[in-house]
Amino acid sequence: MAKAIMVNLEDLRIVFFLYEAGSLSAAARRFEVPKATLSRSLARLEDQAGIPLFDRQSTGLKLTQAGEMLLPAAKAATEAGATADDVLRRASGEPEGELRIAASALSAQQILGPIIGEFSRLYPKVTVRVKVTGHGPDPLEEDLDLVLRLGRPDEPYLITRRVIASTFGLYGPPDCQDKPFTKAEIKELGRIVIDVPGAPLDWEMQDTNGRRLRLDAAPMCFVGDPSVALGILASGKGVAFLPAIFGDRKVLSGELARLFPEFSGPDIEIYAAFPPKRAEIPAVRAFLDLMVDMSEETHTR
């Protein structure tokens, strides 16, 4: 009789992580697992199997035939682990454990920062882990409790809750404050386009009298996070289209200037998106409630 192989479920999850990410480095970044841990798990499984599970190519990792056969079990182990984690977290009557959130750097600073401080005071048994990213990841794919996004997410399987509403405004370097500008001068400064879901590539604004202003000159650059735009503006170059809830604070602190202040861009809403049933987890539910309450209080003063 062939000797039974005792497979570590965590090693199976690692196989799925590597398949999803395509390389050791990408999996380490995406799933926040040390590269050495990933490498050891893969080596252990391949040693048990006696054959490679991945081909090491210059472009990354590609499943071998054996790896393809193992993939359904690896995916099932990953899903089972996430389900078990959710069940245990829901079973607790009070918020505790780890809370996993993703947001852009600017949203993390302006929205999440104050909320996490108050949340940690109220619920000291919860550890908050914030993943800073501009692309608005799928919380179901990356096992996140919630993600902050500009605009309502397109994925129909995600649950959403509106956090705050704003309008877009045009912002430039601080030395531009109170100076009149023409469209040609704005073009000369250079458009910094924030290339994230929910942010417009061409900028359209309107004043209270119905006058319209459209800025669609070729961009100076594209950035994947609003915080990068702030760094460029601080150097004295460029203009950016930002949600007013972020930009106006920077104007008050002298870090930015509001250009064409009589004009406003389209409405924008920031949503918390989360997988089904995550709101049943006490820590997630408590954080969502506090975030909505504090955001509305802060931005309607």
- The assigned structural class equals alpha/beta
Globular, elongated, flat, extended or rod-shaped: what is the shape?
A: globular
Overall number of strands: 13
Name of the level-1 CATH class of the largest domain: Alpha Beta
**Terminal Cα span:** 74 Å
Number of helices: 9
Using the coordinates shown, work out and report the CATH topology of the largest domain: D-Maltodextrin-Binding Protein, domain 2
Largest sheet: 9 strands, mixed
Beta strand %: 15-25%
- Count of structural domains: 2
What's the alpha carbon Rg, rounded to whole Å?
23 Å
Secondary-structure element series: HHHEEHEHEEEHEEEEHEHEEH
CATH architecture of the largest domain: 3-Layer(aba) Sandwich
Low-confidence stretches: none
- Helix % is 40-55%
Overall mean pLDDT:
87
